[in-house]
Write a structure and sequence with these properties.
With 264 residues, the protein is mostly helical. The chain has one domain. 77% of the residues lie in helices and 0% in strands. It contains twelve helices and no strands. The chain is globular, with a radius of gyration of 22 Å. 39% of the residues are buried.
């Protein structure tokens, strides 16, 4: 056996590793495909971007009667509300449709790194979250004249971009549960009640006591606390909220990976 192995160089070796340049190229190609997929489907992208802005114009500008402090508070809440959608729907709906059409099976058979598929979607969700946050900041600073320092605006934008990741993980998990057209309905049943129960539409102080006690169970509550802190409101220590969001992301990524391995 040793003679045979020596006679055929590399016979006992595994498949050659992909060069780093090709690995990087695979990641970049998948990210580019995700960008093009979003840009070629404005019917999916525009509502995600414009829906929070319409809400902010209604409640932060038209019904606010010039209260700059309220405009700043609403900015943080609707920033959280806005960045939830790219993660939930950008991951959940697209994954469910791609599983249903067989595209995910094809991608898994391609000679590309397994993480390229997820990283491409994640980067696109972060870009969309950044656009949503930037539009809301432009409305708050340019129209509502919210008292916000440049450092606070930059911190809020960073919270928006990174804050989409827990909802990417949740959307990914939901996308592994359903196929085809069932995902949007289930995601809306998660997205809208979670927003309400986290105090994004109404202050938690105006809600019944039992709903206030349940609020910390939702990731949107912790992201909203970070957004409020970024805009100058006192919400206590930031680290516990960061740890909860990181743990939530890790748990749902692990659950989604397990289902994808088992059920594809």
């Amino acid at each position: 056996m040793n003679a045979t192995a020596n006679a055929v160089p590399g016979a006992a070796a595994g498949p050659a590793a992909m060069p780093r340049s090709r690995v990087l190229g695979a990641y970049l190609a998948e990210a580019r495909c995700e960008v093009l997929r979003y840009l070629r489907n404005p019917g999916f992208l525009l509502p995600i971007i414009l829906f929070p802005s319409v809400f902010y114009v209604m409640f932060g500008l038209l019904l606010n009667h010039g209260n700059a402090e309220a405009a700043r508070y609403i900015l943080a809440s609707y920033s959280t509300f806005g960045v939830m959608a790219p993660g939930l729907f950008g991951f959940g709906v697209s994954l469910a449709l791609e599983r249903d059409s067989g595209l995910l099976t094809l991608k898994r058979a391609l000679p590309m790194p397994p993480g390229a598929y997820l990283l491409g979607k994640m980067l696109m969700a972060m870009c969309v979250a950044g656009v949503v946050g930037a539009i809301l900041l432009a409305l708050a600073l340019g129209v509502a004249h919210a008292p916000l320092a440049p450092s606070q605006a930059a911190t809020l934008l960073l919270v928006d971009v990174l804050g989409v990741l827990p909802f990417c993980a949740l959307g990914l998990f939901v996308g592994t549960l359903l196929k085809g057209q069932g995902a949007p309905g289930l995601l809306n049943m998660i997205y809208l009640p979670m927003s309400f129960l986290s105090g994004l539409w109404f202050p938690l102080q105006a809600m019944p006591a039992f709903l206030r006690q349940l609020a910390p169970a939702w990731p949107s509550y912790h992201l909203n606390a970070l957004a409020l802190s970024a805009t100058g409101f006192d919400t206590g220590a930031r680290l516990p909220h960061v740890l909860v969001l990181a743990g939530f992301t890790a748990v749902f990524l692990a659950l989604a990976a397990r289902r994808l391995r088992r059920h594809g």
